[in-house]
Design brief:
By secondary structure, the chain is an alpha+beta fold. 48% of the residues lie in helices and 16% in strands.
């Protein structure tokens, strides 16, 4: 038992030292190859802890080998942009001034719900507040808001503004979200009619996103179109 405790302490100290050498970026900004490396190190570290028959040295050598690989890949990524893009990927613009880039969304295997969750995490509750949104190589989304939605206090502007309402997503990638229809108190027919009126030949199954808030603000984008905003819209239940 004492042997296992001693081995565990030794491996723990070594792994802690290795992660410190690899840099603090490992804690929250891992690139794909760094994540893979971290998972393998975690798995390898358990072997000399639990298997007394395995010499500690046999468990430590692979750990140092992986760290050397990490430094090699990092150095090559800095030396060659192409190699860096191959290992870590490239940032991808998923929202631009025209709205959501549906092709980019599909390439990244993201849904509209995933996108909404990500921009809410950046303080944006509607896609028409976003000028650009970029999926970074570490899986995080960076958001540049439109000038009108920049964080300025009412006290600074010395004017009153309307209370912001949370938009409800009614259509996502061609599918009507029926539970949300009850929440927004609108009918499928009213959505279909609205789309046909605003988009020539428009059909609900071709809608990428359709949101509505209590102020009657509609944000609509077709799968192959631009993002459009309509104010003071009245829709029937």
């Amino acid at each position: 038992m004492l042997t296992i405790v001693i081995r565990s302490i030794i491996v723990y100290v070594i792994v802690l030292m290795l992660f410190r050498l690899m840099g603090k970026r490992q804690l929250g900004q891992m690139q794909p190859f760094e994540l893979v490396l971290t998972l393998i190190i975690a798995d390898l570290a358990t072997i000399p802890m639990a298997e007394v028959s395995v010499p500690v040295l046999h468990g430590i050598v692979p750990l140092f080998t992986l760290v050397l690989i990490h430094f090699l890949l990092t150095t090559l990524s800095k030396m060659s942009n192409k190699f860096g893009a191959f290992i870590s990927g490239k940032p991808v613009i998923i929202i631009n001034p025209n709205g959501v880039d549906y092709k980019a969304l599909k390439t990244l295997n993201l849904s509209i719900d995933d996108l909404f969750e990500a921009i809410r995490g950046q303080g944006c509750f509607s896609i028409d507040e976003v000028y650009y949104a970029i999926m970074e190589t570490n899986g995080k989304i960076s958001v540049l808001t439109k000038a009108a939605n920049s964080p300025v206090t009412n006290e600074t502007l010395k004017k009153q503004v309307e209370e912001t309402e949370l938009p409800v997503n009614l259509v996502s990638e061609g599918k009507i979200l029926k539970d949300n229809l009850k929440l927004a108190k609108v009918s499928e027919e009213s959505i279909s009619k609205f789309v046909q009126e605003k988009i020539k030949g428009g059909k609900v199954k071709k809608v990428l996103v359709f949101t509505l808030d209590r102020n009657g603000k509609v944000v609509l984008q077709m799968m192959n179109g631009q993002c459009m905003t309509f104010e003071n819209v009245e829709m029937s239940a």
